[in-house]
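dumping the sequnces here before i forget
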Amino acid sequence: MAMSDETMTGGASGSAKAAPVPKGRAAAAGGKSTLGQAVFVILLLGALALPFIFKNFTIFQMTMLMVYAIAILGLNLLTGINGQFSLGHGAFYAVGAYTAAIMMENLGIGYVWTLPVAGILCFVVGFLFGLPALRLEGIYLALATFALAVATPQFLKLTPFEHWTGGVQGIVIIKPDAPFGLDAVLNADQWLYFFTLAVGLFLYWLARNLVRSRTGRALMAIRDNPIAARSMGVNTSVYKATAFGISAMFTGIAGCLGAIVIQFVAPDSFTFALSVAILVGLVIGGVGWLPGALLGAAFIVFIPNVAEEISKGLAGAFYGFFLIAVIYLAPQGAGGLLRALVAKLGR
Amino acid sequence: MELFIQQIVAGVATGAIYACVALAVVMIYQAIHHLNFAQGEMAMFSTYIAWQMLQWGLPYWVVFPLVILVSFVGGFAIERIVFKPIENAPVLSHIVIFIALFAIFNSFAGFIWDFTIKAVPSPFGDGPLWEGAMIGKHQAGMIGVTLIVLLLLWGFFTFTRVGLAMRAAAVNPESARLVGIRVSMMTALGWGMASAIGAVAGMLIAPVVFLEPNMMLSILLYGFAGAVLGGLTSPLGAVIGGFIVGVVENLAGTYIPVIGGELKLPIALFLIVAVLLVKPAGLLGRRVVQRV
Amino acid sequence: MFNRRSLMMAAASAFVLTAAGPAAAQDAIKIGNTMPYSGPASAYGQIGRTIEAYFNKLNAEGGVAGRQIEFITYDDAYSPPKAVEQTRRLIEQDEVDVLFQNLGTPSNTAIQKYVNAKKVPHLFLATGAAKWNMPDKFPMTTGWQPSYQTEGAIYAKWIQENVENPKIAILWQNDDFGKDYLIGMKEALGEAADSLIVAEAPYEVAQPTVDSEVLSLKASGANVFFIVATPKFAAQAIKKSHEIGWEAERFLSNVSVSVGAVLKPAGFEASKGVISAAYLKEATDPQWADDPAMAEWRAFMDEYYPDGDQASSFTVFGYGVAKTMEHVLEQAGEGADAQAILEAATSMDHVENPMLLPGITMTTGPTDFAPIEAMQLQRFNGETWELFGEIIHAESS
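..and the predicted 3d for all of it:
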């Protein structure tokens, strides 16, 4: 990619502050950026109004959509920005979810505090997983993460930890009410919606800044040309493991929120199907395009329902057909489609 | 001690299952340089076709080659119809298509043939190989067939023009095209062959684990593990890898106290990742040197 | 197969699914349900489709207590988060009157608190966990089938009374289903449990075979082999234990008693002598070939669920539980609301059901939300199950 040369200079010059705004982005700004900002404001206003218009069920569904979007965002940071595969992000989601459940039910700690703890814990777990994963590339990393996803439920129900994890029975969580007397105005579903929205916005902001930071540019350089990056003095091992950690942190926080919203964790909630869903969401939304996470999440939340509406006996098959259809229409996901569209309009 | 030997023999027998699948994995890897996550479901579907033909009363040795042929054509057709239009899409998009195919085959198998398990007869007969033997006739036959497939594959990739062309096409499509290889045809051919080998694996596995739509769900993972352990470029390595996975899994499950039984699968996978860290190309695989 | 209408409906309502089905009469009673129709557990989906077919039959014949039934069933893919979403859709969007036969222990655990808070009856769940019988804590939730723990206790009692110097080896599926049997058996054995159970081996459903586990269990020198497994693994364990000449008294959990779907694939010779406990008639067992109730079931299947599997125990189960619901709706009477239906469901007095073994009936009361609590032991003779001994009542304490 053309970008790497320039980001490299930024990275190697050693001063993050002095690093110039990459040309590519500066060029893309202008018309596109104002349009982007307008879309963002409209979406945000819609999101703020939504809980007062729709039924609790829709609010709940939208909350779950945001939760999955955060999880996908996490994977996007790893795959889209750093170029590493993971078929096992469900494992980090599970770690986050169990952190919330154990802290809330076993230790009686408030749900708000579970988020930073889950984030830090998942960062550590992700970083540690990323260290050996460094030596594994492409297909081998895919296999290792695939194995992680398959093994996750088995770790969760391990007998020696049953006292904490509830074993195969899982843990039931009590749903938090709105604090500060807000519960007079907002019911629990509405409150969790706003809470998730706030966390989601914060994480999105964090992700965007990360991508633009010196670290972000180094990560992208590693994605585009690892050998060149190494020869330019980027410590690829540390960066790649860090990317794994950050990615796991995002997905873990999503898991934490998911557990609070669903009010239940059990090994059966975190099977391989979850990792697959996160990956599908990433690809449908568009690898490397951060807002795509929302579209990807919408796909994995709604399309299975549409598929089973068509046929109960063949629900799985119709889901498969939808997937193929979307990839045919947008081989690079929604992000790719948008890029192509913008390029066309720009000409 | 007796238990130890029994577990090793049982491990070799299950290992033969993994080895068989691992060969199909190597085949597809040689053709597309990637793993096909729908491969197990395709093999399962082929096995259902075999079962259906047997139900119709066709003799086994007619069904066996027929299903291999049908699967070859099926695999070839899938590449042409599903993957050809998006051959330039990124790898991740291909993975999503694998996931889609997985869901489609799995769903249709349950829809057409129901979910109750089906007994698929063994061509080698039931019972132990000889009186008091620890290994059954079918297991012995399965190991034999696996070795034959291994030999054929090795010969194919080493001596035939098509085999060499296929390897060239997968490793370096650009150069292959320059020397006149029809790369896209090679890919389709590889799909067909992988699907055919998968069918053989499915028909051999079904008598042991019973046929049902989810039959291959975990076996494919073990097959991947075996192939990666042995080296994705080496059919012999894949077979050895499959046997090692089978034996290691049984010994871990039997002898590691407390968590051994519950973590059989993760322990086996952990060992494989450990091997990969030391020898990233697998036991017998060749390391691909990347040029800048 | 899918039909044109549902296809168009799906297209029209792609994202925001409309509430009630199109042709629902105003006074139809709405029954909600979740089942795994996709994913690895989709075999269970047959239960939901059987129930749907049975309610179609009832509707075609004029409904129950003067009302049509609108059965709304959604896919939860055996995933608790999905089950929560679908249940909330049923209650908040479709506004169902009752939930019925939601499947799976994890999924029901996930929704139990919510459903009880919403005061929607949560009836006859398709899981054998013991925890659905807690009227004071969860007054909306009832089970249907005998609990796994009860069944485990039945075997334990029989082993202690009939096997000389028993040494028990257990193969169990590592999930809530397997754990419950283990608990039931250990509780019934009491303090003797530690000395009587000489080996336990868990297995994962993700495993290809259980051969290795069976070998280890045999090596423990046990003379009783208890197989707590779902059909595929049960068939493997029966076959393997026979192959290696393990002469133990073998017990088989009730989920795997199907002659056609377990014992026949495992081999009739290998299955000879296996003991299990039953409460339902078994579709493929020759002893019920001429049973009028089973003939009625077959006629129903042919007409209303022709692509259904008549060798599967799930279609018998679905028919039996749907008939129970029919009975409850009849008892609740015309114009019954959710409360009346709950009352009818929790005040059954020796209600008969054509799918239950002769002599087994359903009883519930204010402190007992477990309808079926009796089972009878049976031994496989190589062709068919032979019932023996008395019907064992394990009324909850």
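The two ends of chain B are 54 Å apart (CA to CA).
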